[in-house]
């Protein structure tokens, strides 16, 4: 399987602590079988998330020194604003401390109790803010997104008939906006095509409904458009990124993903009235409207990171690394979600551990087993992440139940990917030894996967 050389060299390193199997067994027990509660120093290869965990470049580190830490009107804000405007094309740029800060503010601005939000699959923090403000989320993604084996090029696309049905059922007046994502995290990092996104916007706009895009991984989405969507192969990632944003009314961004920063985010808007409303709430919840919870140096690092994120050598190497890892797992029969997405390789836990019922959280069980085997940390994306229905209080069991191995950008080498692949292959070969699933020992009310504790059962 091809593994192109990384288009960077390593200038600074962070030691990895070696641990024994016995040590890791104790560590995961102490963490209540939740890898999120492990100390990172006890993790050898950390694939919990690609969010805020990427390696910054020497240019980003030097940009930190340019940070203007003025409370109001910092120069760094204008550098940041120009980068977001230039690469994403939104006129009004409102800084927030990270993605969910923006989700909170957009949801508060637009959602009233009893309204309905259609979208291409839920993301936990996005839906949590929509529900906290009284909306019901409706998944209008194509059916194939829920089939791990359906190797469609754009599994993040919206099924327009499903969207039409939601509009027909509730009426445009009760739909404050359509909530789109590029790529779709909970489907395994699957992209949406420019054509589909544009059609969704046309349909929504025809009913007077605005469309907001989650751009956390829109550059990864642009890469897939370039590779897979007819007519886009000769366009640069920067051009495709602008084309993805162009038909939308705004965006919420976690700069911790594509933009190669450790923290930060923004809301991008076109409507000046909504922008004024959002700035007002930023003052209450995030910080002044020219820093939004970030330091000046954070904004400088993001501005530099945005420019680096659309570099094709960077993105090509990133996606090739994921394909290498996924390809090795696939070759050895470890069930993964196809095609391989933009930020992660996902192991289909229902297929890998059929002996563990959904109510015993197969993916959480697999996550613990993989940690014990070689100190690799992934994250559950299944029943635990889905939480409970706010109305009925019942557990939600989404069709997909998987262990996500999210790869930070520019952090790990091919040898690390081999350690991950070897471990997953070993755990899968010995899967019959996994006889117990997990049940909650402690279940938090919101985003329960972060702090939950479990016991084997
Ligand atoms: N939207 C998407 C698609 C995300 O993946 C995330 C975070 C957010 C919004 C929220 O952004 O973390 O900056 O507040 N995803 C991380 C993950 C946590 O591991 O997938 P945030």
TrEMBL record:
One of its GO terms (molecular function) is carbon-carbon lyase activity. Its cofactor is pyridoxal 5'-phosphate. SUPFAM superfamilies: PLP-dependent transferases. It comes from the Bacteria. InterPro entries: ArAA_b-elim_lyase/Thr_aldolase, Beta-eliminating_lyase, PyrdxlP-dep_Trfase, PyrdxlP-dep_Trfase_major, PyrdxlP-dep_Trfase_small. The keyword Nucleotide-binding does not apply. GO terms for biological process: antibiotic biosynthetic process; aromatic amino acid metabolic process. This is Tyrosine phenol-lyase.
